[in-house]
Amino acid sequence: MQIGQRLKTLREEKNFSQGTIEKATGLLRCYVSRVENGHTVPTVETLEKWARALDMPLYKVMYEGDEPPKPRKLVSDDDKGLWGNSKKEASELSQLQRHLAKMDAKQRTLLLGFAARLARHVAK
Questions:
Q1: What is the pLDDT of residues 8-42, one digit of tens each?
Q2: Whether the Cβ atoms of residue 120 and residue 114 lie closer than 8 Å to each other
Q3: Would you say the C-alpha torsion 22, 26, 30, 36 has a positive or negative sign?
Q4: What are the sequence ranges of the domains in the chain?
Q5: Cβ neighbours of residue 16 under 8 Å, at least 6 residues apart?
Q6: Average pLDDT of the chain, as a whole number
Q7: Which of 83, 67, 76, 64 has the alpha carbon at shortest distance from 5?
C-alpha cells in the first residue's frame, strides 16, 4: 500500500476530514489531498505531524499491525568477513567520519576522488 493511501485510510478510520488534518498539522488541505492521492511524497517530519494529528505512533502510519515491526538483521553470516564489522574497523570508520565532517567540501572531494582512483588501481 502506498503511503498516501495508508494516510487516507487511517484518517477515514478516525472519521477525520482533510480539514481536521489541516488544522492539527498546519499543512494546507490541498497538500493533504495531494499526498493522499499519491501526487506528493511527504517527508518524515510531515509524517510525524500527521501521526500526532491522528493520535498514533509513527510506526502505525508506516506499518499495518498492532506492534512495531521486528528490526531487520543488517549483517548476515555471509557479511562477517567484510571490512568494518570488527570493533577496530568500526572505530576507524568513526574516526574517518569525524575527520571528514571537519573538512570543507573541496577537501572532501579531493580526498574521496583520490581514494576512488586508488581503489580502482588496487582492484586491477
A1: 999 999 999 999 999 999 999 999 999 999 999 99
A2: no
A3: negative
A4: 3-62, 86-123
A5: 53, 54
A6: 86
A7: 64
Task: Of 51, 49, 53, 60, give the one whose Cα is nearest residue 17.
Answer: 53
Cα distance between residue 91 and residue 109, in whole Å = 23
HSE-CB of 32 using CA atoms within 13 angstroms? 23
59, 69 Cβ separation under 8 angstroms: yes
> Which grid coordinates are listed for 96?
574517518
Cβ of 29: how many Cβ atoms within 10 Å? 14
Q: Which residue is it, cell 499526498? A: 35
Which residues are CB-neighbours of 9 under 8 A, at least 6 positions away? 1
pTM for the predicted model, two decimal places: 0.55
Which architecture does CATH list for 3-62? Answer: Orthogonal Bundle (1.10)
What residues in the chain have per-residue pLDDT under 50?
none
The Cα-based distances of 30 to 37, 39, 96, 108 in angstroms read 11, 11, 45, 41
The rounded distance, in Å, linking the Cα atoms of 113 and 121 is 12
According to the model, what pLDDT value does residue 62 have? 84
